[in-house]
Amino acid sequence: MSRRRRRRRPPGGGGGPDQGFWGESRKRAPTPAPIRPTPLPAALPRSLGNPPFTVATAADQLAVVYEEAVRAATALSAANGLLADD
User: Fold this and answer.
1) CA pair distance 28, 21, nearest whole angstrom
2) pLDDT tens-digit map of 1-55
3) Predicted local distance difference test score (pLDDT) of residue 78
4) Does residue 68 fall inside a structural domain?
5) 84: closest CA among 29, 37, 41?
6) How far apart are the C-alpha atoms of 18 and 35, rounded to whole Å?
7) What's the domain range around 64?
8) DSSP 45
9) What is the pLDDT of residue 83?
10) SS3 assignment, position 35
């Protein structure tokens, strides 16, 4: 039986000259625009109509989930200094 040949990697990880150890570019990404949290998190799902569930409170429960998602996203944005100054 013949031995399997392993593909040789070029020295330095095989990435281009602008890539670091983990393959991330050393160039800085542009600063994103400031984030403004929405005052009505459930507006989009509400605009789609009633959810196809038999539970009468499904729309209210989904609204709570959307509100919590907005809270978490706002906290992450604030922690990283991305919130707009109002």
Assistant:
1) 16
2) 667 777 666 555 555 555 666 776 667 778 889 999 999 998 988 899 888 888 8
3) 93
4) yes
5) 37
6) 30
7) 48-79
8) H
9) 92
10) strand
Higher pLDDT pick, 24 / 68: 68
Q: Are 42 and 60 in contact (CB under 8 A)?
A: no
Identify whether the C-beta of residue 28 lies closer than 8 Å to the C-beta of residue 37.
no
Structure tokens at 3: 């031995």
Side-chain half-sphere CA neighbours of 1 within 13 A: 3
Cα-based distances in Å from 16 to 4, 10, 22, 82, 85: 28, 11, 12, 31, 39
Sign of CA dihedral 65, 71, 75, 78: positive
Q: Is residue 56 part of a domain?
A: yes
Any domain includes 74: yes
Amino acid, single-letter form, for residue 41: P
Question: Is 16 inside any structural domain?
Answer: no
